[in-house]
User: Which sequence fits this backbone?
């Protein structure tokens, strides 16, 4: 049976401990010397596996989706690490700049969060689990602000992650700060999945802006020579800004990134 294992990771960069939840695939064997597993790190860990911890009780159904794909050999056995968000500090930790639309996004800690993931969490995983080496075996992703944290980390830490899962990113923040960063990026992950719905908010102008920004990021990535084997973009008509929408797109995302 697949397992969920929890750890509390002390962090000097965040100034506190952070809970992670590690999903182990069917047939996982910690002590087989030659078996090494790719890893996908996902933000907002509370919303990935367990309804009792998830926002409004809705999850991404990560364990069920990943188990289904592994058992049918559509993806290899991988570890999936859900990183809990920082509760009231969520917006601050996930953003490298302030969001003028959110009073809880002042004094951003995005750079500290990137350091926590790459310099504290990832080494812990390597010490604790049989992790496959190299960027090709490491993915990072999230939704909304969590997508911004994953994208920012990939931009400031190039070459660490070879797979990037970006769902419903808040690219409007600080007049497109991450879009401007993306234009000057010299190195991108080997595969990038972008997903967005056309009904992300209750305001049509914000819905149009959200889709327009994702398509702008797509153009930036295409200009960086990410062709169809490296970049998949899914604009889903009528899809909302919700765990249910991200769960529905997760099978396609995992199969594209790791298949």
Assistant:
């Amino acid at each position: 049976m697949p397992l969920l294992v929890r750890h509390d990771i002390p962090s000097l960069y965040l100034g506190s401990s952070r809970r992670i939840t590690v999903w182990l695939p069917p047939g996982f064997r910690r002590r087989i010397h030659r078996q090494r597993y790719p890893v996908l790190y996902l933000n907002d860990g509370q919303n990935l596996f367990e309804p009792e911890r998830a926002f409004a009780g809705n999850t991404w159904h990560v364990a069920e989706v990943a188990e289904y794909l592994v058992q049918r050999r559509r993806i290899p056995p991988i570890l999936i690490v859900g990183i809990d968000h920082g509760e009231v500090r969520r917006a601050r930790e996930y953003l490298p700049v302030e969001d003028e639309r959110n009073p809880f996004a002042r004094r951003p800690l995005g750079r500290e969060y990137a350091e926590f993931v790459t310099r504290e969490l990832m080494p812990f995983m390597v010490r604790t689990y049989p992790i496959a080496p190299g960027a090709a075996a490491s993915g990072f992703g999230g939704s909304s602000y969590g997508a911004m944290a994953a994208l920012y980390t990939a931009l400031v830490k190039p070459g660490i992650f070879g797979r990037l899962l970006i769902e419903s990113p808040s690219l409007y923040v600080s007049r497109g700060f991450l879009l401007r960063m993306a234009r000057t990026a010299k190195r991108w992950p080997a595969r990038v999945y972008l997903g967005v719905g056309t009904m992300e908010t209750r305001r049509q102008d914000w819905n149009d802006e959200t889709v327009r920004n994702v398509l702008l990021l797509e153009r930036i990535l295409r200009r960086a020579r990410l062709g169809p084997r490296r970049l998949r973009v899914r604009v889903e008509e009528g899809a909302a800004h919700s765990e249910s929408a991200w769960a529905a797109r997760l099978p396609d995302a995992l199969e594209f990134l790791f298949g």
User: Anything to note?
Assistant: The mean pLDDT is 95.
